């Protein structure tokens, strides 16, 4: 949920009517099971009870959502590194969601930079 919010869930509205254009899965692509990495390692802590948590839980709801903003910061740092590599260093404003299109435009990558040279 959080990764989708920060990386792919761009809502688009019709500028004339104000109607939502991304209101179904034809135009709007939420993250799915295929978006989970193949190698996804999770380690659970042993002997770490939480007697005051709901059903002894550590956290539920907002904390995982709040931590997903780190993905947005990672994409922003990658875009800044890309810009620095081709001579345009410095701070850039980079708002969520960090879609592929927005990331590419922010990096200011031109087609001649996408060629392979041995």
Explain this structure:
The protein has 118 residues and is an all-alpha fold. The chain has helices at residues 2-7, 62-67, 69-85, 100-107. The model has no long low-confidence stretch (mean pLDDT 83).
Look at the structure and give the mean pLDDT. 83
Unreliable sequence segments = none
Q: Helix proportion of residues, in percent?
A: 25-40%
| Oligomer classification | single chain
Give the helix/strand class: mainly alpha
Strand content: under 5%
How large, in whole angstroms, is the Cα Rg?
Answer: 19 Å
How far apart lie the N and C ends?
A: 41 Å
Give the ordered list of helices and strands: HHHH
Main sheet characteristics: none
The coarse silhouette is extended
Outline of the structure:
The protein has 118 residues and is an all-alpha fold. Helix content is 31%, strand content 0%. The chain is built from four helices and no strands.
Please describe the topology of this protein.
Layout (H helix, E strand, L loop, with lengths): L1 H6 L54 H6 L1 H17 L14 H8 L11
List keywords for this structure.
mainly alpha
């Amino acid at each position: 949920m959080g990764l989708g919010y920060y990386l792919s869930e761009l809502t688009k509205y019709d500028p004339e009517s104000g109607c939502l254009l991304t209101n179904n899965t034809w135009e709007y692509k939420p993250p799915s099971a295929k978006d989970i990495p193949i190698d996804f390692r999770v380690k659970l802590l042993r002997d770490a009870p939480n007697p005051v948590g709901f059903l002894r839980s550590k956290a539920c709801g907002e904390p995982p959502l709040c931590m997903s903003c780190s993905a947005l910061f990672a994409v922003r740092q990658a875009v800044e590194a890309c810009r620095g590599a081709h001579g345009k260093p410095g701070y850039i404003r980079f708002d969520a969601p960090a879609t592929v299109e927005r990331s590419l435009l922010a990096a200011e990558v031109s087609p001649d930079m996408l060629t392979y040279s041995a």
